[in-house]
Amino acid sequence: MMLPPARSRFPLPVAARRAVRVVHADEIRGIDDFYERFAHEPLVVRGIWPPGHPARELSLADVQAGLGSRPLDVWDTRRQDYLAVPLGAFFEAFARGSPADGSGWNIVDHHIVDTPLAPFAAPPPFLRRNWFVGAPVSWDGMERSVVLTPAGRFSPLHLDSYGMQGWMALVAGRKTWEFLSPAETRAAWLGEERRFFDARTDDPARVPGLATATAYTATLEAGELLFFPGGWAHQVDTDEASHGFGGSLLNEHQVEAHVRGWLWEREQGVAGDLDLRAALERMPAERVHTPGGRANLTAALRACAEWEARAGGAG
Ligand SMILES: O=C(O)CCC(=O)C(=O)O
Ligand SMILES: [Fe+2]
């Protein structure tokens, strides 16, 4: 089904907007079907929590209680780093809402595997093939996180690290997402400043390539899940105070996008701590489930080798 394309307070200066595809969870018949028929573009999935599912009932107070006493990991877009914020201070600011410019605290990847919230944040069955979990990467926390966003907050355009795939499911609130495909994402990169275009403050004349681009947009509502594939840049506007869950994944189905994203980060000097090539080289055969996935992995490793040979030759 199709909805009219959504538009955020700070829309991307694109030629056209197109509504993200919406499906019901029952239409997805397992992991292979998901990657064959759905996962090549952003997707809204309805019906992930059947009536009576405990995640649907989780209040903000339940989330606060379930977090324990450890400070929250807040992503600070100005510093491009995590900030540890005491729980009490965060919930006070959450109640006040974000300043009009959309700044303020936002929690989208505070890991909760070691808290009572973990079972509520289990990814749906079609999102359970994940190389972040278990050896050799062993970044299990990436699989499920809590999401807590005050009303009015705006996350400017960015790519998630390692070209990873992401999902978010809201228990309450609303968020408007705008996406650029991997091919159009580069037009929004301000190379000399090593950052993406910020729709709140930057002159659209700085990103002329977007004038012919199409943004995929969606307003994510409570009870819905949003998925985005590897390498899609996104900006997120939170119209209503929101809480829910999210997670990140890497796997055989989109490993080429992950490698492209990671090599691009290395080129720009913004790559994180994971040596993706080394991890992929050590991936045990039993963690690859399909012949197509095996071929993707081989192609991705070849791309890493070629990139490193070029970078070595250039340097
Ligand atoms: O919800 C937000 O403000 C940002 C979310 C996001 O960028 C993500 O989940 O990757
Ligand atoms: Fe993101």
Explain how this protein is built.
The protein is of the alpha+beta class and 315 residues long. The chain has 2 domains: 16-251, Jelly Rolls (Sandwich), CATH 2.60.120; 256-314, no CATH class. The chain is 23% helix and 27% strand. The chain has 7 helices and 14 strands. The chain has helices at residues 31-37, 60-66, 87-96, 182-185, 255-268, 276-281, 291-314, and strands at 16-19, 21-24, 43-46, 72-76, 81-85, 107-111, 145-149, 154-158, 165-180, 189-190, 195-196, 214-221, 225-228, 233-249. The strands form 3 sheets. Strands 1, 2, 3, 6, 7, 8, 9, 12, 13 and 14 form a 10-stranded mixed beta sheet that branches. Strand 4 and strand 5 (81-85) form a beta hairpin. Helix 5 runs parallel beside helix 7 (291-314). Residues 106, 108, 149, 155, 160, 166, 168, 175, 234, 236, 238, 246 line the site of 2-oxoglutaric acid. The site of fe (ii) ion has 4 residues, from loops.
Helix content: 10-25%
Please give the domain count: 2
The CATH class of the largest domain: Mainly Beta
Shape, please?
Answer: globular
Mean pLDDT: 94
Main sheet? Answer: 10 strands, mixed
Decide which structural class fits the backbone.
Answer: alpha+beta
Order of helices and strands: EEHEHEEHEEEEHEEEEEHHH
**What is the CATH architecture descriptor of the largest domain?**
Sandwich
- Per the CATH scheme, the topology name of the largest domain is Jelly Rolls
Oligomer: single chain
Identify low-pLDDT runs: none
CATH homology superfamily name of the largest domain: Cupin
Give every kind of bound small molecule, once each. 2-oxoglutaric acid, fe (ii) ion
DSSP strand tally: 14
Question: Approximately what portion of the residues adopt beta-strand conformation?
Answer: 25-35%
Through-space gap between termini: 50 Å
| Rg calculated over all Cα atoms | 19 Å
Instruction: Tell me the number of helical segments per DSSP (H or I, 4 or more residues long).
Output: 7
